[in-house]
What we know:
A: mainly alpha; 3 helices
Amino acid sequence: MTREPEGWVPPGAGAANAAAPFPGVRAWLHEVFAGRYRHTFARAQQDEEDVVLMLVLSESLGVPNPMSFYAVELMPVVYDRFHAWHRRIGLHRSPLDRISCC
Amino acid sequence: MLLELIGGREVVFVGGKGGVGKTSVAGALALSSAEHGRRVLLVSTDPAHSLGHLFGMPVGDGFTEVVPGLDACELDPERTMDIHLDAAERTMRRLMPEHLGAEVTKHLTLAREAPGAAEAAVLERLADVLEGARQAYDRVVVDTAPSGHTVRLLGLPQVVTAWTSGLLGRQQRSARFAEAMSNLDRGHTDADPGAELVPRRGRRGARGRPSGSPEQEDRQARDAEIRDILLRRQARFTHLRSLVTDPSRSAFVVVLAAERLPVQETVELHEHLRRLGASVDGLVVNKRSPRGQGELLDRRRAQEEEHLSTLTAALPRLPLTQVPLLADDVHGVASLRRLGDLL
Amino acid sequence: MSSIVLALIGIAMILTGYLLYSRYLANKVYVLESAAVTPAHALNDGVDYVPTNKYILWGHHFTSVAGAAPIVGPAIAVIWGWLPAFLWVTLGTVFFAGAHDMGALWASSRNRGRSMGALSGRYIGARGSNLFLVVIFLLLLMVNAAFAVVISGLLVSTPSAVIPTWGAIAVALVIGQALYRGWASLPVVSVVGVVALYALILLGDQVPVSLPETVLGLPAASAWIVILFVYAGVASVLPVWVLLQPRDYINGLQLFLALGLIYASVIIAAPDIVAPAVNSAVPEGTPGMIPLLFVTIACGAISGFHGMVSSGTSSKQLDKETDARFVGYFGAVGEGLLALGAIVATTAGFATVSAWRETYNEFGAGSVGAFVSGGGAIVQEGLGLPETLSATILATTAILFAATTMDTGVRLQRFVVQEIGEVMGLTLGKGLATVIALAVALGLTFGAGADGSGGMLIWPLFGTTNQLMAGLTLSIVAIMLLRRGRNALVVMVPLVFLLAMTVYALFVQLGTFFSDENWLLFGLDLVILVAAIWVIVESVSAMRSAKSDGPDHDWATEIQRERSSAGTESSGTAS
């Protein structure tokens, strides 16, 4: 992957951003209330996904997994979540020498 | 007669310790069935791979005709493992930039050495073969690896199903949260309400707001893929389990010699299989010492009777077929036919 | 004096502060750059790091920090007259809270969105993270204990609030399930939730519930406290989306409704302030205004808790660094306005000054209860709602605010206990850590004389720990400024003032507890005092070495450097 972290766009790029306008009372109310709730659900979802990630990649993280044959068929699908995961827990570079995503 | 005992069942597993003539019995059964007009496939999961030797011709991982009506196959777990890992590797390489391809390969070699990987590969190929064989053959005779392996092999589906259920549960919960999130915006606007409110400046893989956005769709697609893989895996093993535990579709024959250890192991094997839900249908006591052929053999025969009584005491209702010690090695179609007549 | 005039003056002062002072802070001190990389963009993951429109982010930030403290503090502090409280709230918001909240946002955003704990470790050193753990443990302990006392006090004094308080839990559970399973859309669920809550309030008004005088040997207030802690323990181990988040959600709705209710009533009723500007006849035993005023009102003037929310959540959602001005400073403004409302309610909601003095006959006697009755009177005058109903509404609102703070407080305390355990080499399970958190808070609450009389004694202690946390935050901001060669006076003056007043107040209280022979609180006071001195020592030494440590390379500037050297477009200019 490139050196840039995913999702990064230089701030200031694009006119739409010059000063994000006030969204209108109804939208504002909705976003304020829905937003924090959404965050809670997103957090919970992320936790579940992290568990799946750990179970599938446990072998690579040093935990012998008798299910590793079956984990392999899931690996391609969850592989790119690993990068997001290690950035999220605060490791700038991949913590393993086997999985070098960055 | 063993063949009558088996009746019309489509799969016969032949199990037992190494060196008791298991493969010969399996071969003989297969040949008899074929000569009774069925299309038969003889499969060996035994890493010792003696089918080729039994029929006097090379038998590989594919279906080789050894006799008209009878095909043989020696499962090659290495090949299965290679295919399995290759598929994963190809997909992962697609996701990663060029120079990291080697990393992926390195990573996957770990899986090859993992505990239980070899057995998993055998099971995979076996399940594959059994599924494929339903159409093409009337009967599959499986010459299994020595006892311990067999039990673990047949117990594996249950374990894997438990693991996949766990993962599916997590997936389900994750999907529920995703649904709840998209619900939050229901009744507000039909378009993504976050779109105008968050400066949306570029699509360079940004994982933006999770409601109804392309990123969320991407995530949902990925979750669906995971779910599909897991469900397919579960289905495969459910079918296998139902095959093995259905007495009308599969039979189990245990081959042993009338010696202390084989008898003990047979009783244990019977118990393990019972716990797995499979039932043993018949025993074949092989290499019985003949009567009146000299003092040594008579004494051996007496010992064998003792062991046999232990066996019949432990497993009273199990039909027993006794096969005498043969002068020549079982090798080639003719001797197999002779053995088949004795069963 | 007319309360409207006072409110308008206060609002004007605070708004002027926002317009002028926050601009100065943003441009000259913190030098917020619109082109600076924010964690929300760099680490965008759709969950924690999400660039958010500043008005919406303000909404999130404000509803997170708004609680019962800006109500209780001023309600107690007006015993010294309305003027001291008014001045501390307004000037504190402008010069202290604004700079603090904004600074915390800026400090965290510049450092990849890391929280105050991590920043303590970075700028003060290894001892800094341990210090932070100690301070936050004490703060959460005081929060849980003090708010439990507040809630139980209200449940006893306003029995009509009992049904709505506990019924609200059921409403929250239902809302949680409704949103999780998608039974209905958000607007529908919100309306139903609010209607259910108010229906419960109406019901509670008709059916007040009081516990018998003694329950299993405990006085009624204590029994409530035990029940509260049991509830808090259970609530904190459930998944957040089951109970805590729905409660928080209702709270947010209720916050705006209640604010609207109070300010509308004030505008319509235009009551006069009957309390004296400066109370020359304070009841006997009332501690001196200085220093106690400054630790009685924390939230609403300056509060360390806000810094934690700023650095914990809000900083990860900043769209542009320049948004920190609006989100941080205006967040403090919101708190100040809430505190102002409390001052008005507790000084203008009485018929005469003697009625006021009856309530404020002892330090701590007039607190959130006075807010409820005073505010209730105003709402009755303004909107015509019967007084008991208004009181019930306000009491329920205050209780719900305090309860959600307690919910989060117990949950956070569990994490802190686990982390402290790790530092000491122990691994504590979820259940055990929760029990420890609850036991310590419960012990404190009962030790403080939770039978209702001595309950409010711990409020000033709560104030001191809150200010201590604020002091720690300010010192970190100051260090960051010093290492950038900027003028840190705007942060150091509040820092010195705050720490001085806090230590002074701790000494004063030490004397009080000693003469009252309240050994538990005496001991606790001592512990907090030691922590305060530790904070002072560390921040002084870190600030001294700040100059010699050289320029601070924060994460944002490093990323900027990487980009420009990698040949991407150069960063924009400062706003």
